[in-house]
Design a protein that fits this description.
- The chain is built from 2 helices and 11 strands, in the order E-H-E-E-E-E-E-E-E-E-E-E-H.
- By secondary structure, the protein is mostly beta strands.
- A hairpin with a 5-residue loop joins strand 7 and strand 8.
Length: 173
């Protein structure tokens, strides 16, 4: 399956109709699922990769009811509302890996809406030049990273396969 599937209104791409059918099925598959709805202003470069998709004030998470596409318009209800909502896109971009769709509304060309299954938010920390120690634990290796300035210690248990993958990744830098 392609990682990204694009449909664009008026496109001469021979896969446009098939892409639209795939997107229609995916949109319908969101029925009764909790989704994250985020909209952003498209940057001047036009590249939505530059956008900050971290949760912002007007972002919503809600259960989607009766998602369907009629014509080229996307329709849906929020689980706790009777009112049907809709948007007509000029372009749709489905990211299969992240299970998210980017909707570019016809009526608001400067806007992109990202809808998808809420992603897991990982806690992130940055260690700069930590102290390192490796110890054996059976067939596994335990890599301990210590940042004395932040007073943080991270222990990573690596199976032989993961250790080999780490070595390979380091050697290819």
């Amino acid at each position: 399956m392609q990682p990204r599937i694009v449909w664009q209104q008026g496109s001469n791409n021979p896969d446009n109709a098939n892409n639209f059918a795939t997107i229609r099925e995916w949109w319908a598959s969101l029925a009764d699922k909790k989704i994250a709805w985020r909209q952003r202003i498209i940057p001047q470069s036009g590249d939505v990769i530059e956008l900050d998709w971290e949760t912002q004030r007007f972002d919503e998470v809600f259960q989607l009811k009766t998602p369907e596409i009629r014509g080229i318009t996307l329709y849906w209800h929020k689980a706790d509302e009777d009112r049907e909502r809709s948007t007509t896109p000029g372009k749709l971009e489905l990211d299969n890996q992240r299970q998210q769709i980017y909707i570019y509304p016809q009526s608001q060309k400067e806007l992109v809406i990202r809808v998808g299954i809420p992603e897991i938010i990982y806690q992130k920390m940055e260690l700069k030049n930590p102290q390192m120690q490796v110890t054996a634990a059976g067939e596994n290796q335990i890599l301990t990273l210590r940042d004395t300035q932040q007073q943080v210690e991270v222990k990573v248990t690596l199976s032989p396969e993961n250790l080999n993958q780490l070595k390979t990744n380091i050697l290819t830098l």
